[in-house]
Specification:
- The structure is a homodimer.
- Chain A is of the alpha/beta class.
- In chain A, strands 4-3-5-12-6 form a 5-stranded mixed β-sheet.
- In chain A, helix 7 links the parallel strand 8 and strand 9.
- The longest helix of chain A is centred in the N-terminal third of the chain and has 28 residues.
- Chain A binds a DNA duplex through helix 3.
- Chains A, B: Keywords: DNA-binding, Transcription, Transcription regulation.
- Chains A, B: GO terms for molecular function: DNA binding; DNA-binding transcription factor activity.
- Chains A, B: It comes from Streptomyces griseoviridis.
DNA sequence: CTGGTGTCATACGCGGACCGTATGACGTGT
DNA sequence: ACACGTCATACGGTCCGCGTATGACACCAG
């Protein structure tokens, strides 16, 4: 009979848990190892260690890849929650230790330099960090305290957040340089009515529908395109001439693929660039950054004067 | 300007978090190290590593001991939650992997052998574990899935639990062998009206009040006694003649201090030995154990026939 | 049946991290 | 001023986990 007196000291390595979530996502040790910047044997051992710590086999290895076992299905959501909670605990603790610190997030193609510089000038003692975020990570990054303010584009769920529109941004068509529409002054939806537009798996369905303009204003569904994993894959696909996409007005300095170009898209609602912070956040630096952003980040991409709708 | 692309891989070692909670509890590196079965320098380094991972100073070391810093106050409750969640995730995953396994918890002085043996006989393929629990840990151990059933004594909060009374148990007075009341057939509350009764810090206030019989039936508060950390300390205190206590009918085979003895206490409500499981738990083995416990564990300490109030 | 391909597991040498012992620095109370 | 108790640092030894190379095994095609 096994009897133990002390609550077994928690022996669960969160780094291994993180490895597990990545393997569960890829269902493949080799590719997961690549994503984790390690090697397949090392990852294999890490999963083995994790399984030993948990005391249950989490993955069913087959010769054609890897699947979650029944226990793995139980563990995965809890593992993800543990990782989120751990990250939030660290972020909030750090924030409590350094009230004179703020992290500003932004997404590709948006420039927060002016507002950040203004904040640094007015608060020379403050630590101001900036952080590039994934397209669909703004809300999570705020709520998990990885950042304290975000400049990004709608749409995303805004509850528990305070969101202020900074300016409109026209949507543009992204095509290869040698596409039939490349070089045009502008295009309309009619010009691309039959062009397939890819789905991005990593993005929210809301976000996919918004940027694919699905459904179209006339109510028809957007032409289905292939499913790609990440935005980079989408750009590769476009460069290969297999699809086009609609996006914000990126240029080659802010992450646009070298062999792609953009054409203004007329006749559709522009996207909106917003400043978002946590709804209840009354922090000194957050408030100050709001002020500077609302003042300096309006109309960045427009020739005309700033306007706040 | 610091910009990072990837969500910083969670680098938080839960073993270090565990160390932190223990140091926070003891406010003393040396004693915390002892509790963790390690040495003070090692613990000092572990806390340093944790502070480096979190990115904030968690403890204010002084020459008179150690206190929580402001950041530490923020981190501590989250740390404890992380550890609980991690333990629960592991327990539930293990349970999912081995549906033919059950862990039965019990507290000192209670014997579950009969029911456990019956369960093993009827389910020879099942893994049946037993686990000695702290007095005030029954509810937590159940809800965190460290155990699936518990035999222990009231009182404790019973919501989200299914609790069945197995039998009554007289409360007894615990005194040194050479105490004036030792050897008496029985005593009443009047005999000990002025005897100081210690508080146990590790126990719930509810539990302290119950076993100290505070307030007494006549409405008067129980005489205050010293504050001790753990039950073992209380027994040492009684052995030293500095206090007496009221407890369940332990004997020397089930954890009673060698130089102590017990005297039946008349005229007070007996305590109740109960079987507790999670309210929603419909597990095959749990149900089976309930049956055997209700059948075999009633009246264990009474000469008379079993009875289920 | 047999060779090829792709999967995950294992063998092995090495570097780095962590531990325990011994000792130091430092504020505190007598 | 001295002794005491607390936490920090120095140092050598050990073990753990990584990366490279290789193996075992299932599947597929011919």
């Amino acid at each position: 009979m096994v009897s133990e007196r002390f609550p077994a000291p928690v022996d669960l390595d969160l780094r291994l848990v993180q490895c597990f979530t990545v393997v569960a996502e890829h269902r493949h040790f080799g590719r997961a190892a690549e994503a984790l910047h390690t090697t397949q044997p090392s990852l294999s051992r890490q999963i083995r260690r994790l399984e030993q710590q948990v005391g249950a086999r989490l993955l069913d290895r087959t010769t054609r890849g890897t699947r979650l076992s029944e226990a793995g299905e139980v563990f995965l959501p809890r593992a993800e929650r543990l990782l989120r909670d751990a990250a939030e605990a660290m972020a909030r603790t750090r924030a409590a230790a350094r009230p004179g610190s703020i992290t500003v997030g932004y997404t590709r193609g948006l420039v927060v330099t002016a507002a950040v510089r203004a904040l640094r000038d007015r608060h020379p003692d403050a630590e101001v960090h900036t952080r590039l975020l994934d397209w669909n990570d703004s809300r999570g990054a705020l709520l998990e305290h990885r950042v304290d303010a975000v400049v990004t584009r709608l749409p995303f769920p805004t509850d528990r957040l305070r969101v202020t529109v900074l300016h409109d941004e026209p949507r543009v068509l992204v095509v290869p340089r040698d596409h039939r529409l490349a070089g045009r002054e502008s295009v309309t939806l009619d010009d691309i009515a039959d062009e397939p537009i890819p789905h991005v798996r990593q993005s929210d369905p809301l976000l996919n529908a918004y940027w694919r303009l699905d459904p179209r204003p006339d109510g028809r569904p957007a032409p289905e395109g292939p499913l790609v994993e990440a935005l980079e894959d989408k750009h590769e696909l476009i460069a290969a001439g297999r699809a086009v996409a609609i996006g914000p007005p990126l240029d080659h300095a802010t992450g646009l693929h070298p062999s792609l170009t953009t054409v203004p898209l007329r006749g559709v609602e522009p996207s909106q660039v917003v400043l978002a912070t946590r709804a209840g956040d009354r922090g000194r630096l957050v408030t100050a950054f709001r002020k500077h952003a609302e003042e300096l980040l309006t109309g960045t991409h427009r020739a005309g004067p700033a306007r706040t709708p």
